[in-house]
Specification:
The complex is a heterodimer of chains A (about 160) and B (about 280). Chain A is of the alpha+beta class and about 160 residues long. Helix content of chain A is about 30%, strand content about 15%. The radius of gyration of chain A is 16 Å and the shape is globular. The chains are: A alpha+beta (about 160), B alpha+beta (about 280).
Chain lengths: ~160, ~280
């Protein structure tokens, strides 16, 4: 299969890569660009572990072809912290122990960040529905919801 | 597999028609990429239609709405005009998959995938929506109800693509609603579903109605809505509607629901969706 050159922007940096027409964006990120934060849980859009944003829209990178992101702006978990300074969501996930094995965590952080950009004060129910496509098989979800809510409160300047 | 982005609907259609092997349209990709991953299909050509001008836009049209075929359902949800006029259509579309899937999936894709359980389709049929189809022999406008042909099949000919969905102008004192049954609260496929669209006179009598059922037949089916027309949706009318809904069910029997369960659930959902649509049409929250 003939590879196709693609120019895109990832976490603010211009990136060019070659990929085959049938190659999911997730495989491009992990195998060609070394961005292994997004994980493959199911590969069919059910688990959310590969969540990224494309042009500001939360998507599963396993359900996007690499060739589709020509000219797009992509944000991944690797762009979330600024150097050594963690994003409030990342800090609160650690403080609340909202993870165990961590495979689902990058996707949940990317998804939660996307939620808080649209809705700075979500209810617990809104957080649960928004994250319904992010499966965690270790912790149960209560600590994840708590961590999102305490990060949201901090980001609103309430703490 | 070759990949091409089409700049016009005609170019997409020509490429799809000219492909001797298996060709597929790519809009949101939430069905296509799953099928690729599972090895269910090995297309020779994939045509990405998202670069076609206007195909990702929602525009006002003849008092109603034109929704481009590649508008993601998350974008639809954020459009206040469509949601105000056709809340049932939007709520059906927004039940598909997760937030991540909503960011990519489209109503036109849901329609053309041909699933009998497609959540976006009953609402569109109840709304009497149409689609624009561009193909090798020109452009035609077809009712949404005429697109599904059976599980995984449509009436679209080789080289034909849906470019837009057209929702008619919303009449005064009218509204719609969609309900589905799944064994959990989110992220599942309908076991039975019902969409109701209705219009009231000034005194609250139903003057027009359409009732469409999903997941209870090889394709979306209309139930006899004359059971509620001329009524104010009293108990007798609701009971007659439930019976009419049950009467058109022809479901499969599988692990997600028996024939009996799907049939009686379709009746219950039709009744409940009618009540929601009725209250919305009256302006009751």
């Amino acid at each position: 299969m003939k590879s196709i050159p693609v120019s895109t922007t990832i976490n603010g940096d211009p990136v060019e890569f070659l990929c085959t027409p049938d190659e999911p964006l997730l495989d491009v990120l992990r195998n060609r660009l070394g961005l292994t934060g997004a994980k493959e849980g199911c590969g069919t859009g059910d688990c959310g572990a590969c969540s990224v944003t494309v042009n500001g829209r939360l998507v599963c990178s396993c359900l996007v072809l690499g060739v589709e992101v020509e000219g797009a702006q992509i944000e991944t978990i690797e762009g979330m912290a600024h150097g050594e300074t963690l994003h409030p969501l990342q800090r609160h996930f650690i403080e609340k122990a909202a993870l165990q094995c961590g495979v689902c965590t990058p996707g949940i952080l990317v998804a939660a960040k996307s939620l808080l950009e649209k809705n700075a004060s979500p209810t617990d129910e809104e957080v649960r529905y928004w994250l319904a496509g992010n499966l965690c098989r270790c912790t149960g979800y209560d600590k994840i919801i708590e961590a999102v809510q305490s990060a949201a409160a901090e980001m609103r300047g309430e703490v | 597999m070759r990949y091409m982005t089409a700049e016009t609907a005609e170019a997409a259609s020509s490429a799809l028609a000219a492909e001797p092997g298996l060709a597929r349209v790519l809009a949101g990709g939430t069905d296509l990429l799953v099928q690729l991953k599972a090895g269910m299909i090995r297309p020779d050509l994939v045509v990405d239609i998202k670069k076609i001008p206007g195909i990702r836009e929602i525009t006002a049209e003849n008092g109603g709405w034109r929704i481009g075929a590649a508008v993601a359902n998350a974008e639809l949800k954020e459009h206040p005009g469509v949601k105000a006029d056709w809340p049932g259509v939007v709520e059906g579309a927004n039940l598909i998959g997760s937030t991540q899937v909503q960011g990519r999936c489209t109503m036109a894709g849901n329609l053309c995938n041909g699933s009998p359980a497609a959540d976006a389709v009953p609402g569109l049929v109840a709304a009497d929506a149409s689609v624009t189809v561009v193909g090798p022999s020109g452009t035609r406008v077809v009712k949404v109800a005429d697109i599904p042909a059976g599980p995984g099949r449509t009436t679209l000919a080789k080289g034909e693509i849906v470019t837009a969905i057209h929702l008619p102008a919303k009449a005064a004192r009218s509204s719609d609603a969609y309900l589905r049954f799944i064994p959990r609260t989110e992220m599942d496929i309908a076991v039975a579903a019902a969409a109701v669209s209705l219009t009231l006179s000034e005194d609250g009598t139903i003057t027009a109605a359409r009732v469409a059922l999903g997941a209870v037949a090889p394709k979306v089916v209309l139930a006899d809505a004359s059971t509620i027309i001329g009524t104010k949706l009293d108990d007798a009318a609701l009971a007659a509607l439930a019976k009419a809904a049950e009467a058109v069910c022809n479901p499969i029997d599988d692990k997600r629901g028996t024939i009996e369960f799907r049939t009686s659930t379709a009746g219950v959902l039709a009744r409940r969706a009618a009540v929601i649509a009725y209250n919305r049409a009256k302006g009751v929250k």
